[in-house]
């Protein structure tokens, strides 16, 4: 167990292998494939949200809004404009990214709870706008999304989603380990020091919102394609809360954390779906317990194993030279 | 190189720095000393553009610094360390240093996301640079350690190291040896001399430790209550009665001022 | 005029909820997303007392506020005290978790269908000038004004108020000065939740009684609190009232569905101009 957990490559290939044979494990049942698709959509969104919240330290209580925008973009572009999927899906990201940019611009000036309220407002306003802008969004009845012929088969669509999922994970991973990703964390850790190392706060905060919105938009687009239909109340305030819970419970600023969180909080509501009240209680309790007992998220469990399999490194007060620099040759 | 001319800074009516003028010549170690609350760090924060003087001008190699935003200062060749260590605590030492190289890294989102060869090359060069700096500071063994796990002395080193990453023309050091023992202080003083002599940095130093200041500085400005009260080479300043008087008011400082 | 007055009445409810939110935030630095749900729960308690136990309005009202006080106390001791030093995001998500638990429990016990809730005072609406206003609505206004005055007086002139103000400035220093921070935080949660309880009981006759009745109220109260700067008690009241009136004007002149969109547009506009809110203090540069 420990070996598997600490060997990233092995773990990764096991994960990918599992997803590839997943449809056959469950006899290609529509229900299980849908469940998997929902997990993938939330994994992408949680990773995107984690980039903003976990790495960048910026609050967003309105990410469901970006999902909705992505879904509607796909719906409008396929049915009203008739563009093909390979154009539409990236465009869903771009359009949502632009919305993220617009949200990011004023949000840059806000901190903490002020930012929370601004994004909260965005999150609840989007469904209202979708509901009332009849000419564009079809109002209450929503919009249909036509899936291209080559994807009419659920199985082929399933593999498309895995492809997108892997691609997005790779892209986000690259961004986070680059100078861009370091600038995000720098902003979270100390705005003063970030500025004096040349990080332009407003620019990078806006970029953070934009990138996060971009990937969330793609996830929303996948949703639209899979269900063939989008409506104003697909993603509500509760979705935004759930997304935050995924990120915090899974592990802030960690891609595996976002994945774990998304898997748990997609399956959990599914299991308790038939009992409305109970559903909330169980999710709520899971969140509360995780915060109280695993404040660094579920992903910290694996780190615990990793620590055990590695020699312990220098810690505070254990400098062998008594807190001095070891070598005189400075 | 760096010129302050009649700079005045006020906070809510309180004058922190009053009509301060001085000039830092290129290639020298220039120290600002003075009792607590004399306005020394305020001077740094004006250079970093965190504070806005109400009057006066600050120029750096002929350019008006007041026109810049805080994040643009480093691109002009001015980097700084902080009095109480302002590091990215949850990052590793290596990542902290790499962030210091931010101004010259490529930032095309698309090529970053796709991890194109140009980005990989950039990153490799950055790491080499970081290794150089860590070697100079003798902290290579801590590269993958989280900064928050380090002792204060090491954190100070990382803070200075981060400022060195971009090869600045002028480096601002805010009390680099505060909280260090004599052995560590000696090492930092060697380092500062090395910055000047081998790397050709100009150093602007704020420090309380008089023996360090007197030993390594080329020029010293003494501030008290926001005003410049003395200026000159260390020897002159040391014997200036005005300076001694200013320090007598502070028992703590007095003890150090031998 | 009628629109403004009805807006003010909703505004009073928002102001009460906002006041509780700000009070808790100001002293303990926690943004309590479960505030509305806790208020809803207390309201249900009063409903049970009124209908199942046949109590009259005043004792039911007081008893449910007592419940609210204990509820606040319990939430503080069982949950919030443990995360006092955790990152803000963890605290926020914890209150979101509580939000779901409380909502779920209420749903399990009382179901999700809406119930009508009795008003405190029955009777036909009065007509003042061209404005119609019911006795119950007048009560809401009076109660809000009284509670605000009481809070203002407590905060300004009593030892408890002083301790609360001190604890909100600097927890460590207050502790050193002999102020028992735990007691102060406890008191804050009690006061905050009682305020919420009052707001809940006032809201129930205006909307209907259901586990979801407070979500929108909470969001708008939150908006009001932010508008007022989030650290200012008068700001919370003013912000709440402003949101109430503005919301009603939008529902009347533009479209009731779009009111939330416009409320948040207003807030984003205000925050863009004044990032610290209308009553928030000046932003201080972190000392380095």
UniProtKB/TrEMBL annotation, chain A:
- Record's subcellular location: Cell membrane
Task: Reply yes or no: does the keyword Nuclease apply.
Answer: no
Q: Which UniProt keywords apply?
A: Cell membrane, Membrane, Transmembrane, Transmembrane helix
Q: Which InterPro entries match?
A: ABC_transp_permease, LivM-like
Pfam families named in the record: BPD_transp_2
- List the transmembrane segments: 33-53, 60-77, 83-105, 112-131, 151-172, 207-229, 241-268, 275-294
Membrane topology type: Multi-pass membrane protein
**One of the record's GO cellular component terms:** plasma membrane
The protein depicted here goes by the name: Branched-chain amino acid ABC transporter permease
Task: Look up and give the organism this protein is from.
Answer: Oceanobacillus piezotolerans
Taxonomic lineage per UniProt? Answer: Bacteria, Bacillati, Bacillota, Bacilli, Bacillales
Automatic annotation (TrEMBL), chain B:
Domain (ABC transporter) spans 2-250
Query: Which GO cellular component terms, listed alphabetically, does the Swiss-Prot or TrEMBL entry include?
Result: plasma membrane
Q: Which domain of life does this protein belong to?
A: Bacteria
Carries keyword ATP-binding?
yes
State whether keyword DNA damage applies: no
PROSITE patterns, A to Z: ABC_TRANSPORTER_2
Q: Which Pfam families match?
A: ABC_tran, BCA_ABC_TP_C
Provide the alphabetized UniProt keywords: ATP-binding, Nucleotide-binding, Transport
- One MF term from GO for this chain? ATP binding
InterPro entries this protein is in? AAA+_ATPase, ABC_AA/LPS_Transport, ABC_transporter-like_ATP-bd, BCA_ABC_TP_C, P-loop_NTPase
Known PANTHER family for this protein?
Answer: CONSERVED COMPONENT OF ABC TRANSPORTER FOR NATURAL AMINO ACIDS-RELATED (PTHR45772)
According to UniProt, the name of this protein is ABC transporter ATP-binding protein
Q: What taxonomic lineage is listed for the species of origin?
A: Bacteria, Bacillati, Bacillota, Bacilli, Bacillales
TrEMBL record, chain C:
**What CDD domains does the database record attribute to this sequence?**
TM_PBP1_LivH_like (cd06582)
Q: What is the topology of this protein in the membrane according to its UniProt annotation?
A: Multi-pass membrane protein
Keyword annotations for this protein, in alphabetical order, are:
Amino-acid transport, Cell membrane, Membrane, Transmembrane, Transmembrane helix, Transport
Query: Tell me, what is an example of a GO biological process annotation in this record?
Result: amino acid transport
Q: Please name the Pfam families in this protein's record.
A: BPD_transp_2
Q: Name one GO cellular component term.
A: plasma membrane
Where it mainly occurs, coarsely classed, is membrane
Signal peptide span per the entry? none
Q: InterPro entries per the record? A: ABC_transp_permease, BCAA_transport_permease
GO terms (molecular function) for this protein are: transmembrane transporter activity
User: Where would you find this protein in the cell?
Assistant: Cell membrane
Concerning its family, UniProt says: Belongs to the binding-protein-dependent transport system permease family. LivHM subfamily.
What is this protein identified as? Branched-chain amino acid ABC transporter permease
Q: Which organism is it from?
A: Oceanobacillus piezotolerans
